[in-house]
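Researcher: We're teaching a course module on how sequence relates to structure. For the next exercise, students receive a sequence and then see the predicted structure as tokens, so they can try to spot secondary structure elements on their own. Here is the exercise chain.
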Amino acid sequence: MHRLFRSIRTPRPTSRPTTRSTRLRRVIAAPVAILGVGALVLGAGAATAAAAPALSVGGVSYYVNCAAKTNGNGSASSPWNKAKSVNAHGAYSAGDHILFKRGTTCSGRLAPLGSGAPGSPIVIGAYGSGAKPTINGGGTPNNTGTVRLLNQHDWTVQDLHLTNKVKTKTTKTYRAGLLFLNEGGKRLANLTAQRLTVDNVVSSPVAGFHGPRLFGGIAALTFGTRGDGFDHLQILHNAVSKVGRTGIVVNNAEYPASTDTDVRIGYDTVRQARGDSIILIGVKGGRIDHSLSANGADFWPCPQCKKVSPETANSGIWTARSQNVRIDHNEVYGEHRLGGDGEGIDIDVSAKNTTVEANYVHDNQGGGLLICNATDLTIRYNILENNTRAAIVFTTKKPSKNVHIYNNSIYVASSVKADSVVRTKQGFGAKGTQFFNNIVYSFGNSSYRFPGPLFSKANTFIGHHSKTEPKGAGTSHAYPGLRNPGHGSNGMKTVSGYRLQSTKGAQRGVAVPASVKTDFFGKKVNPKHPFRGASNG
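Model: And here is the predicted structure for the students to work with:
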């Protein structure tokens, strides 16, 4: 369980910033591509992401070459050579482009002004050939980022390399690589961050004026008034690594009075985040998909943290105090647990109507999935392999309601230090828990402890058996005919061993909701007569 109050509701400043700091806080962001943007594709064999926003038309292009000896007027023939020249320009208009020369490095914060318009965003991007242009914040002040946008809408930030380095990992300052900030800006729409490389951002890992999880790589934060939030926020195809504390975070502190809507985090990779990899809090209608969280919570031992607590706990991908969130087709592995938790995916406090589907969650130190006071949670067609402690963990004093776990393939090798397949630490008295159509291979401690009365049906259990193994009609101990389970490694393409060898004679489960269309591997499912486990053929 993560402690949320500080990161969900933070006090607002009682004093106004100085004129200079106010000007620097009015930062940028931007939506869409400038060089041939259609559908966005991530590598061979990956699914295609939603199309990026329409290409900006009209407007003026401004050029920045920080390797130039003299500072020009921002034209192609006479580019600016400082980030602060971009900031000093004044408000930009819909359709404008601010382009940094590839292969160059600029130092300082980027904080342009103005907003775009629907279908005509302001774009920050790159020109020329070679490596992405680098913007190094160099250790920006508290509550800022290398690129920061305050109360602005219709921007795309793309094709940049962002860092925010200081000489030490120990700091009391909260920083981000890219920061979208809503402080009383009402509804801010159409912000996109895409194809960014964000690394080496140093931010405080402990709670202070702001919660410890709110800064790091890419952050979209609302600390406003009732009704404030982001709409149609897209964070796509970004590579984030070695940032602190969080890789990618979207948080609306005004929840439930306000929510962010239509939020998409897709096709992103987050490696070695000091804390959590990807977080959605205060969202109504969101999706985290086709993303990778690898080796997260990499900040322990933490001299500033003093002791393990809910504020030091981390998970790879999680949501809390949100509604209608879908987490699908992600891979999470290597999550550390010395600071607490350490599960791959976490459905946390007051999450409602969440679907966790077709994820590959493996080799995490704290467990596979963590369920904390969730309501109307569906967990289906996932592959959970060799997660330490337990494949599924229930916790929190307030019990969850209507958790339906079906058609998952679970594997626990004898070498894995798991004390159970399903364990409950606290939160007993849960209602509406269902466990059906699952295939479980457990060769270690095969105990099951659910948080309340359980509906169990049509599950297959292989390996060691215990008295706590769920009973129910259709329970089987016969091998289900999978090709070679338990031999996955890093990569979504390594789990073909969980496919059925043949559909002839394969074990069937009970009917699933008609909303189920495909299995883990993208094969069509007959919801009235599905096969068991995550594979339908």
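Model: If you want an answer key for the exercise: Confidence is low (pLDDT under 50) at residues 5-48. The first helix runs from residue 5 to 8.
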